[in-house]
């Protein structure tokens, strides 16, 4: 049953953001991960890669294959993935446990190399990402009560997308980057009344984000 302000009752009766849809997989992800601040480079790289794989697909598909992706892509350690070559691409194209899309697989390997470049210049992927945290005045209203949809981009996601593309990254359009920002806590799009909103806000208040080198 839908509750007020875009919340839904989960399988346990707990109020959650509407997109969790009463599915156990989504509920666990919503409760434990989505919107929680992340500062570990490996996890940030994984999240950005998986958002790229999600393009054109359901996030539930990616979520249910996540462990397979981790095994296939060396746990998304950028230095390891950067060493992948043509033989690895063919291996991955034969792996039924992941999304077998040549362009997205090649993009992940390319982005691992670009991530190493970025870490070398900025100090860490986390420092770079957190420098794009939007100011409060820049955050649009996320929930459309009529359509039950959320905005898919923001000024900050557009800026990050453009900058990553200039650095040679691929599959990092503004929509993909915005979904990444939601997932790793750069924005907190849990709705008012969702218990996870205050939890995510508390974690952000306690966080001291890393700073880009030379800033």
UniProtKB/TrEMBL annotation:
In terms of domain of life, where is this protein from?
Answer: Bacteria
Identify a single GO molecular function assigned to this protein. metal ion binding
Biological process terms from the Gene Ontology for this record are: base-excision repair
Q: Could you tell me which InterPro entries the record lists for this protein?
A: Adenine_glyco, DNA-3mA_glycosylase, DNA_glycosylase
Q: Does the keyword Cell inner membrane apply?
A: no
Residues annotated to bind Zn(2+): 17, 30, 190, 194
UniProt keywords, alphabetically: Metal-binding, Zinc
- Pfam families per the record? Adenine_glyco
Give the protein's recorded name. DNA-3-methyladenine glycosylase I
């Amino acid at each position: 049953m839908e509750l007020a302000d875009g919340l839904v009752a989960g399988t346990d009766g707990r109020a959650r953001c509407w997109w969790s849809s009463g599915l156990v997989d989504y509920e666990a992800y919503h409760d434990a991960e989505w919107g929680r601040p992340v500062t570990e480079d490996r996890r940030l790289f994984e999240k950005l890669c998986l958002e790229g794989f999600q393009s054109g697909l359901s996030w539930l598909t990616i979520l249910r294959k996540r462990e397979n992706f981790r095994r296939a892509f060396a746990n998304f350690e950028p230095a390891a993935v950067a060493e992948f070559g043509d033989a690895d691409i063919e291996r991955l194209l034969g792996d039924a446990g992941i999304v077998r899309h040549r362009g997205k697989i090649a993009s992940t390997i390319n982005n691992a190399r670009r991530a190493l470049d970025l870490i070398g210049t900025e100090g860490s992927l986390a420092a770079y990402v957190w420098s794009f945290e939007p100011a409060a005045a820049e955050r649009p209203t996320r929930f459309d009560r009529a359509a039950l949809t959320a905005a898919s981009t923001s000024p900050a996601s557009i800026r990050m997308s453009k900058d990553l593309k200039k650095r040679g990254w691929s599959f990092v359009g503004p929509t993909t980057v915005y979904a990444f920002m939601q997932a790793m806590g750069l924005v907190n799009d849990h709705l008012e009344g969702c218990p996870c909103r205050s939890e995510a806000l508390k974690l952000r208040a306690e966080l001291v984000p890393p700073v880009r080198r030379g800033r």
